[in-house]
Design brief:
Helices cover 36% and strands 30% of the residues. With 138 residues, the protein is of the alpha+beta class.
C-alpha cells in the first residue's frame, strides 16, 4: 500500500532513496520519461536516470494534482501525447520484506511452492511504504 498523502510520500521517499517517475505506456511496459522527488508535498523534477527499486503505479488524478501535476509537467516537457502514468519507485528491499513475511506465514519453501500455498490459502500479501522509509509486509 502506497501512502495517498503527498507529505507521507515525501517522508517515505526522502528516507528510502526512492523517487517518482512519469512513464509512457507501451503495451505492458512503462518507459520512464521524467523523474521527480517530492519537496514540500510537491513533485520536483530531478536530473538523471530514475532511482533503482520496485516501481508501483500511483492511480488517481487527485494524487497527481496534489503533487503539482507531474504527469502534465512531463507531458509538456517531452511533447508526449500518449497515455502517461505516475509511478513510485520503492526500495529494492520490498522483495526481501515480502519473502520474510511469506516465510513467516508458510515456512521455508521453494518460491513456486510458496506461491501455491499462498494461493491455496487465499492469502494476500500486503506491503506498506512507511513514512520511516521502510517497507513492511504482512
Amino acid at each position: 500500500m502506497i501512502p495517498s498523502d503527498p507529505r507521507a510520500i515525501e517522508a517515505h521517499l526522502s528516507r528510502s532513496g526512492g523517487c517518482l517517475v512519469v512513464s509512457r505506456l507501451r503495451g505492458e511496459e512503462a518507459e520512464p520519461l521524467a523523474t521527480f522527488t517530492v519537496q514540500g508535498g510537491r513533485a520536483v523534477p530531478t536530473e538523471g536516470p530514475p532511482c533503482g527499486g520496485v516501481p508501483r503505479l500511483l492511480s488517481g488524478d487527485s494524487l497527481n494534482e496534489a503533487l503539482g501535476d507531474p504527469i502534465g509537467h512531463a507531458a509538456r516537457a517531452s511533447g508526449e501525447t500518449g497515455p502517461l502514468v505516475l509511478q513510485i519507485v520503492l526500495s529494492s528491499s520490498l522483495h526481501g520484506a515480502a519473502q520474510v513475511a511469506l516465510a513467516a506465514r508458510f515456512g521455508s519453501l521453494p518460491q513456486n511452492q510458496m506461491a501455491q500455498a499462498a494461493a491455496g490459502a487465499g492469502y494476500e500479501l500486503r506491503c506498506y511504504a512507511e513514512p520511516s522509509g521502510e517497507v513492511r509486509c504482512q
